[in-house]
Amino acid sequence: MTSPPKPIELYDTWAREVRPFTPIEEGRVGLYCCGPTVYDYAHIGNLRTYVFEDLLRRTLEMAGYAVRHVMNITDVGHLTSDADTGEDKMEKGAARTGLTAWEIAERYTAAFREDLAALNILEPHVWCRATDHIEEQIADIAEIERQGYTYITSDGVYFDTAKLADYGYLARLDVAGLDAGSRVELGEKRNPTDFALWKFSPADTRRQMEWDSPWGRGFPGWHIECSAMSVKYLGPLFDIHCGGKDHIPVHHSNEIAQCEVAHGTRLANYWLHGYFLETGQEKMSKSAGEFLRLQTLLDRDIDPLAYRYLCLTAHYRSDLRFSWESLDAAVVALGRLRQAVHGAPAGGEVDAASLDQFQAELLNDLNSPKAIAVTWNLVRSDLDPADRRATLLAMDEVLGLDLANWTPVETTVPAEIEELLAARNAARAARDWGRADALRDQIHAAGFDIEDGPEGSRLKPR
After folding, report:
1. Which of 408-435 are b and which e, b meaning 16 or more Cβ less than 10 Å from the residue's Cβ?
2. Same domain, 301 and 194
3. Which of 6, 60, 242, 398 is most buried by its number of CB atoms within 10 A?
4. Residue range 263-296, pLDDT digits in tens
5. pLDDT digits over 402-412, tens only?
């Protein structure tokens, strides 16, 4: 007889509290994660959100749930402004590269999937592209119109948020205050928070991506795709909807509004949001210009799984400050975990007490920093090495660091690097810290890390 899933608590943005998770269908979880707008490469800030969602899925499966994971690909309808102004990001990407919008979508979808694989992120069970679901989106818009929540302007069909009493509840928006203090040029919009359901193609321009609809030729707005596709694959009320915290005030609030009118639900029972990756004073953003891709790390010979480890050292509901120093520390930590697994014999038994403690931290709103701490306590313990190895591998089924499949690379250390290490050791013994640091930097630049321990220093290829 199958045992019931383990209790898990999650922070629900809708309720603004950590609350026990109760699935709609016993033993099963419907999970929808907002996917990328594929007009450019994902940056590592974007990817932090997908690491969080992967941790959520793995934790749910660890707890005993059967998860159905759905993710969209936005390949039309996302304008350069959340206020429904500017160019479609796909058309803009096509103009930038000289490719068609369809080619742009294929290129960056493939790149995104490669990034997920490099980070050992489980692929969703269902990928759904906005351009494959135009019919579903039109049907939802027609139902919202039938319910009396739309109006038409010269550039599109808009959702009238003033007609929905609890619009913006997810974000606790002060809609009246926004109306009173708005300095935004509304144009033909009735309210600052109104949003496009369908945009008309300009009369004098033929877009690459456009379709016929009951309202005229054009393309869907950004928000309608997620509510239409999540309902198609998970039903009008499913368990968990995820995304970045920047989705709360606009995209997710609008998804909920659409679903309340079209289906009478708030779309998901639990709304979970990952926080930002910061590189200074601001969150990482493609709109800011230069941004770090996963390929940037690969170009520096940094294993992408070290970035995954770095993400796990911070709780998903806290911003994570990125620095090369913190990533270097993650490289070293990941290397030590790998050595702890591959330096021990196979055939051990999982230590139930350690695994229970590890799982308890994750079942408490995905507390990955504390779960990582439990992992390091295990590494430093006097548990039988074979049992320690078996337990680490059991933990890694959730951490996703792929410890079992790492293969040590045998590298001969050049004599000149050994000489640099000897000189550094001599400088440290003489307490000449400046010279020791300079020599360490030379060794690091040559592609080697130094591990200092009670038995001395040793070199390890990066």
Report:
1. eeeeeeeeebeebbebbbebbeeeeeee
2. no
3. 60
4. 999 999 999 999 999 986 555 555 444 579 999 9
5. 999 998 766 67
The H or E element spanning position 244 is strand 237-244
Helix (H, G, I), strand (E, B) or coil at 32: strand
pLDDT (mean) for 244-252: 96
Whether the model clears a pTM of 0.85, i.e. scores above it, the answer is yes
350 domain residue, yes or no: yes
**Overall domain count for the chain:** 3
If you search the block for the tokens 């321009």, which residue do you land on?
Answer: 205
Both 398 and 449 in one domain: the answer is no
Residues comprising the chain, all counted: 462
- Tokens standing for 111? 């790149």
Residues 235 and 314 reside in one and the same domain: no
Domain annotation covers residue 50: yes
What does the pLDDT look like over 203-233, one tens digit per residue?
887 889 999 999 999 999 999 999 999 999 9
Indicate if the pLDDT at residue 184 is higher than 60. Answer: no
Q: How far is CA 433 from CA 170, 325, 423, 424, 425, in A?
A: 54, 19, 12, 9, 10
- Could you tell me the two tokens for 69? 């994971």
User: Tokens 């499913």 label which residue?
Assistant: 238
Question: Is residue 29 located within the same domain as residue 141?
Answer: yes
> Do residue 302 and residue 446 come from a single domain?
no
